Amino acid sequence: MQDTTLPKTLTLGRPDDFHLHLRDNAALSAVVGFTARQFGRALVMPNLKPPVTTVAMAAAYRERILLACGANATFDPLMTLYLTDNTAADEVARVAESEFIYAFKYYPAGATTNSDSGVSALKNVYAVLEAMQRHGVILCVHGEVTDPSTDVFDREAIFVDGALQHIVRDFPALKIVVEHITTKEAADFVTAAGPNIAATITPQHLLYNRTSIFTGGIRPHLYCLPILKRETHRQALLKAASSGSSKFFLGTDSAPHAKNAKEACCGAAGCFTSHAALELYAEAFDASNSIDKLDDFASRFGAAFYGLPRNAGTVTLQRETWTPPDDFAFGSEKIVPLTVGRSLGWRMTDL
């Protein structure tokens, strides 16, 4: 018998996605509409080829995003710059003066998709981090070590215990977002740190654990970096996300890859979730009996950390069983979403 006490609809302030990959050109045009439909703003990652490393490059990329959204769109892309060993400290001042760039992104070299231009040694960017602290510019961190001898499931915990501790110690006033956290260690670190340290959490890390990747065969569309972890870590992330702490907020890390790049002998890392991001988060919060906490997580906490007002307007989800498409057009190719082969229990309405 259906539980009639469960809410049938859920209204949220129009939310923000504080970690998003949009790619470029035809791929950008194929996916940006999904995010613009659900979110008022999104923090767009800079790991293109070549990476977005200057204010001028970010301005040009933002114009391409807005053009792909169409003339009537109200979506606001928030831009980031890619931190490299060669980033000039002077670029930080230009970022602080800009009206559309909100952070630098720190990728350890080789950590994930298009990260080969990332930071090879932390000391190489200390002058830039000092300038960021001085100008109040946020640092977004992909928190993994890249030593090939380190077990892939341990890379985040080791980064948190090493490099992240050093950054926080040496730059105590720097605002830091630890992106797409996947472990209890990261959640505990952020909880215990000062108010200038926060974290984003993805829907896949709230809904799945590492066993899910191998259930019924290898599931390439669940493969992302940082990789899914043990169930104990998933539970820790759920606890953090639903705790009511303003340190944790929504960042999908939705990362589109063509089907033939995912379903390959050496498949690409990244989960595409933009087509049903809010529905996936609602499912996770609903399953943990904390659906009342989703509005703050999705619509308030991230905006507050980035010093932004809440978006105008609302979005509404209704409790409805539906099955998203198994694939979507992606330029001349197809993209397969995280939800392939399964149904969802919430659906965003267009009312």
Structural account:
- This protein has helices at residues 25-38, 55-69, 90-97, 126-135, 155-170, 184-192, 203-207, 231-241, 259-262, 277-287, 294-305, and strands at 9-13, 16-20, 41-44, 76-83, 101-106, 138-141, 176-178, 197-201, 248-250, 314-322, 328-330, 333-335, 344-348.
- The chain contains eleven helices and 13 strands.
- The protein has 351 residues and is an alpha/beta fold.
- α3 packs parallel to α4 (126-135).
- The radius of gyration is 19 Å and the shape is globular.
- The protein is 33% helix and 18% strand.
- The strands form three sheets. The protein has an eight-stranded parallel sheet with strand order 2-3-4-5-6-7-8-9.
- 47% of the residues are buried.
Please outline what is shown here.
The chain has 351 residues and is α/β, with parallel strands linked by helices.
- Helix/strand-derived category reads alpha/beta
The total of beta strands comes to 13
Low-pLDDT residue intervals, each spanning 5 or more residues: none
**Beta-strand share of residues:** 15-25%
Q: Over all CA atoms, what is the radius of gyration?
A: 19 Å
Distance between the termini: 29 Å
Instruction: List the helices and strands in order.
Output: EEHEHEHEHEHEHEHHEHHHEEEE
Overall 3D geometry? globular
Total count of helical runs of at least 4 residues: 11
What is the average of the pLDDT values?
A: 96
Question: Numbering strands along the chain, what is their spatial order in the largest sheet?
Answer: 2-3-4-5-6-7-8-9
What can be said about the biggest beta sheet?
Answer: 8 strands, parallel
Helical residues, percent: 25-40%
